[in-house]
Amino acid sequence: MAKKIGKDLMTKVIESTRIAFEYDWDEFSSDSFANALAALSPADADAVSEKCAVIDELRSKPNNRAVMLCYLKETASIPADVADEIDGFPTVKVAAVCASVLCKEDIRTLMGRFFVNVRHGNNLKNFEVKIHDDVDENAVANHKDQLVRRLKKYVSDKENCAEHCESSVFRVESRQVLVLKLTDHADQVESWDSSKDAFDYKDIVPSMKLAVVLDEMSDRVSVHYRDVSVAKDILKIFCDEVLGANGYSISGEVKYDLDCFAEKSQARLGDTPSENGLKPLVRNITVVELYVWLGGSKNSRRTYFENGKDIYDEIRREKSMLNSSPVESGDQAQSVFPVGTVVKRVRLRIEYDAPKRPNARRTIELMPNTDNGLGDMPRKASDALRKFLEDRQMLIKEDVANDENDSGQNR
Predict the structure, then answer these.
(1) β-strands 220-224, 124-131: how paired?
(2) What is the rounded radius of gyration, in angstroms, for the C-alpha atoms of the chain?
């Protein structure tokens, strides 16, 4: 890790531990640094290990980089000597800066924001919203008090809890995020009571989270809440307040039909852009990974990778070897998987032209109820790709009832 972080940032990380560390930084190398760490006392070694563990957790996913950068800028925590270059730092170096300048409480707050990168799960619904006017970059912050009041009342009426609430609003690139931390129903937990030298039950009031993310770039609104059956209500309260009751229309809940990838060859995707007006913006689309449940059984889960070759040819080759008989290849093959196979995840490599970067590449991930990386492409390219997926009935906007009685509820 020290080699990836580099001497200057590693110096900051060590200094932030406040330990006595004798080391000639002018002679910095991975081996000599490791030897110096090995000579530390157990307490000092633990302090360094704790910092390294924080860095490891912060950098665990590349998408965390944007959240970390935004938090450092929001809290004015960027050291002056790296201010001009930090935007070009890789994830591990940004994590090192965070570990060296942020206190434990700030680190916890920062880690609590990583959920904005979660694009799928049982507690998440994604909606596409047609916004009639430009969105103010501080729209959510400007309506925070009203949003908190209405959403807290909605949860309280619905679940008979949420007596207390803490809220926050922050930005991550094109996303405006509102988070409500609410008190849940009282509960009891069994824990060790040292005064009794025995286990005992303690009364607690746990917390629960409600979050709404508005992505100005993709016109998507994501609702994070434990009861996704009410996500539509939360969406409407949010949009009514931030966009105005007449300032938007809900296109639908975003879902993807991926099972077609078990039947269609890569060529079907690669050849299509020129036929549907995507070129020259999008040059090619290649399937680079498939995660499937063979025959629909989760006990037969498989992941297939491109590895420099046509992924479908590789699957057919494997199938042929298992069957000890030739398997139809090329576009004539209707399916390379058993009947009933369910595709759970697809990764596509998109080759496109960006304003300042011709022949750019981006890998996006599609799952049944979300996508990952599509919003990171330039707006024109991502819009064109969404249209392509929608025309091919891969992207589905599931209708959301837009009852007039729902707008303006719980005011």
Answers:
(1) antiparallel
(2) 25
**Sheet architecture: strand order including 282-293:** 301-305, 282-293, 342-354, 357-367, 370-372
Identify residue 67 by its one-letter amino acid code: V
Helix (H, G, I), strand (E, B) or coil at 56: helix
* Domain total of the chain: 3
Q: Assign 289 to helix, strand or coil.
A: strand
Question: Last residue of some domain: 59, 76, 111?
Answer: 111
User: Amino acid identity, residue 251?
Assistant: S
| Structural domain includes residue 232 | yes
In what order do the strands lie in the sheet containing 165-172? 165-172, 175-183, 207-215, 220-224, 124-131, 248-256, 395-398
318 and 372 share a domain?
A: yes
**Token reading at 168:** 């926050």
Residue 248, pLDDT score: 94
Residue 229: other Cβ atoms inside 10 A: 8
Q: Does 164 map to a domain?
A: yes
pLDDT over 60 (residue 326): no
What does each C-alpha distance from 344 to 156, 261, 265, 341, 395 come to in angstroms?
A: 35, 10, 17, 10, 14
Judge whether residue 120 has pLDDT over 70: no
Residue range 356-390, pLDDT digits in tens: 666 788 888 888 888 877 777 777 777 788 888 88
- Strand 207-215 relative to strand 220-224, pairing: antiparallel
Query: Strand, coil or helix: what is 183?
Result: strand
- Tens digit of pLDDT for each residue in 150-200? 999 999 999 999 999 999 999 998 899 999 999 999 999 999 999 999 999
Identify whether residues 352 and 281 lie together within a single domain: yes
70 vs 78: CA distance, rounded Å: 10
Pick from 40-44, 109-113, 255-259, 309-313: least confident: 309-313
